[in-house]
Amino acid sequence: MNKALGIMLLAVIAASPARAATWKIDAAHSAVTFRVAHLTISKVQGRFDRFSGSVEYEPGQPQLVRAEAVIETASVNTNVEKRDEHLRGADFFNVEKFPTMTFKSTKALGGKGMKGKLQGELTLRGVTKPVVLDVEGFGPIKDPQGNERLGATAKTRIQRKDFGMVFNHTLDTGGLMVGDEVEVTLELECIKESPASGKK
Questions:
Q1: What is the mean pLDDT of the chain?
Q2: Domain CATH code at residue 95
Q3: Quick check: is 13 in a domain?
Q4: Domain of residue 32, residue span
Q5: Is there a domain that residue 76 lies in?
Q6: Of 45, 65, 75, 178, most Cβ neighbours within 10 A?
Q7: Segment 128-144 mean pLDDT
């Protein structure tokens, strides 16, 4: 290879956009939870037991952050089976017709240090709406087996009526039995995939 060609190739490589590493969500060490008001005086907490996803991230390059997640709606769990059966039905998640909900990021917004915002689209019950996640990252570090791991806490609020979940009862006091606003929190631990194999 002559010197001029080598310089040209180096220039092309330098000008190419950086590619972030892929980190797979470790569901065994992660959680997807939610809270919603009940009878205007307390909040019911629940979680989803089955989910998967990945994050594209390179330390020091927050503009490259991308994330995708798939949550199985039938795995909703509030520790009360009768209530969970209602949540799986047509009034709420309608799991037979809509077995999953998905999140896909569209843009990493400005932040400071390991804190920032991630704009994306949430699809639930066949309806897609924009959402913004407040994100705080942790790591990366190496576990005892030598795998690189990073953590993140992501929070957002959605209006369930936006996704067709309109079930409710009006109380004698004028309030609603179930709140419309739902607080969603993701506590994630992710494992870096090998570029060659696509595996951790």
A1: 89
A2: 2.40.128.110
A3: no
A4: 19-192
A5: yes
A6: 65
A7: 96
